[in-house]
Design a protein that fits this description.
alpha+beta, 13 strands, 7 helices, Alpha-Beta Plaits
Length: 294
C-alpha cells in the first residue's frame, strides 16, 4: 500500500489586534493557510475527496472567519491559536488531516500538527531532515549554457547540488518559432518543503532575469521540480499549484534523456516504471531522438 501527502490551501481576511505591551489597534489582516493530509493511496486515488475539503473549508473556516473580529473568538488572537482552531475543526471532519500552517506573512507562520507526528517532537531542529529533489533546468535565451551555469550556482543557496546531468539541446515545443533550448537535470539535497522549494525556485528565476512572456515562450531560465523523494503530491496554492512528479515528464525527451544519465533506475512513484524504461518507451514511440548532448 502506497501512502501520499496532499495539501489544500485557502485564505480569509479578518480583523484582530493586540493589547497589553503591544498595544496594537484592531486592523484587517489577510491570513493564508494550508491543510496537509496523509493517507493510503488506492486505485481510485486518495481517500479524501478534495471537493469535499474545499466545501468544508469555505463553509466552516472561511465564511465564519472572513471579516470577523478574531478578538471576539480568542482571548489571544495569535496566529498560533488560529492554527490550532482550524486544525481541530478540520481534523474532526477529516481524520487524515495531519497539520495546519497559518501564514501571517510569506516568511512567518505557525504550524500545528495536533501531535500527529511523534517523530516531529523528537527531531533535532538544528539538524532538519534532508530531502532529495530532482530539478529540471532550461534556457533558450543567449547565452543559454551560461544561464544554466549561473542557475546551478544559485541553487547551492537552497541545498547541496549532488549531481548534474550532461547539457542537451532540444527543439522548442508548443511555440516553435524560437531558439533551441539547452536543458539539464540535477539532484538537490535540501531541507525545504516542496511548496517552499517551489517558491524559492520561482524567486531565483526572477533574480536570474526571467520575465513573464507567454506559455511555452522563450525564457532566460526555467526551474522545475521533477521528483521530491518518492512522493506523489499536489498542493493547490493560489499562485503556484504544485504537482509532484512533474506532469507529463514521461512524454518529454529533454527531461528523460538527461535523467537517464544520473538516475536511470529511479522508479517514477506514480507510474511505477524506472527512468530508463520510460525513456526507451518514449524513443520507441517517437522513432528518433530530437535531442543531442552538448
Amino acid at each position: 500500500m502506497k501512502y501520499i501527502s496532499l495539501t489544500q490551501c485557502s485564505s480569509f481576511t479578518a480583523t484582530h489586534g493586540h493589547g497589553g505591551a503591544l498595544n496594537e489597534a484592531p486592523h484587517a489582516h489577510r491570513f493564508d493557510y494550508r491543510v496537509s493530509f496523509y493517507g493510503p493511496l488506492n486505485n481510485e486515488g486518495f481517500l479524501v475527496d478534495f471537493r469535499d475539503v474545499q466545501q468544508f473549508l469555505q463553509t466552516h473556516i472561511n465564511t465564519p472567519l472572513d471579516k470577523a473580529n478574531l478578538n471576539t473568538l480568542f482571548e489571544y488572537p495569535t496566529t498560533e491559536n488560529l492554527a490550532v482552531w482550524i486544525f481541530e475543526k478540520v481534523h474532526t471532519q477529516f481524520p487524515q488531516a495531519t497539520a495546519v500552517r497559518v501564514y501571517e506573512a510569506p516568511d512567518r507562520w505557525a504550524e500545528y500538527t495536533g501531535q500527529m507526528h511523534p517523530t516531529a517532537q523528537t527531531t533535532d531542529k538544528s539538524s532538519p531532515r534532508t530531502h532529495q529533489a530532482v530539478l529540471a533546468l532550461g534556457s533558450n535565451i543567449a547565452p543559454a549554457k551560461e544561464n544554466l551555469d549561473c542557475a546551478i550556482e544559485a541553487l547551492k543557496t537552497l541545498g547541496t547540488v549532488q549531481e548534474v546531468s550532461p547539457y542537451i539541446a532540444s527543439a522548442p515545443e508548443g511555440f516553435v518559432n524560437q531558439a533551441d533550448f539547452v536543458n539539464t537535470v540535477l539532484i538537490l539535497q535540501t531541507t525545504l518543503a516542496p511548496m517552499d522549494l517551489l517558491k524559492q525556485l520561482k524567486a531565483l528565476e526572477t533574480k536570474l532575469g526571467r520575465v513573464p512572456t507567454f506559455p511555452n515562450g522563450p525564457r532566460v531560465i526555467d526551474l522545475d521540480i521533477l521528483f521530491y523523494d518518492d512522493q506523489v503530491l499536489f498542493e493547490d496554492d493560489a499562485v503556484y499549484p504544485l504537482f509532484i512528479p512533474h506532469p507529463r515528464l514521461e512524454e518529454r525527451e529533454f527531461v528523460l534523456k538527461p535523467l537517464s544519465y544520473i538516475l536511470p533506475d529511479y522508479v517514477h512513484p506514480k507510474l511505477g516504471k524506472p527512468v530508463y524504461r520510460l525513456y526507451r518507451e518514449l524513443m520507441k514511440k517517437k522513432g528518433a531522438s530530437s535531442c543531442r548532448i552538448l
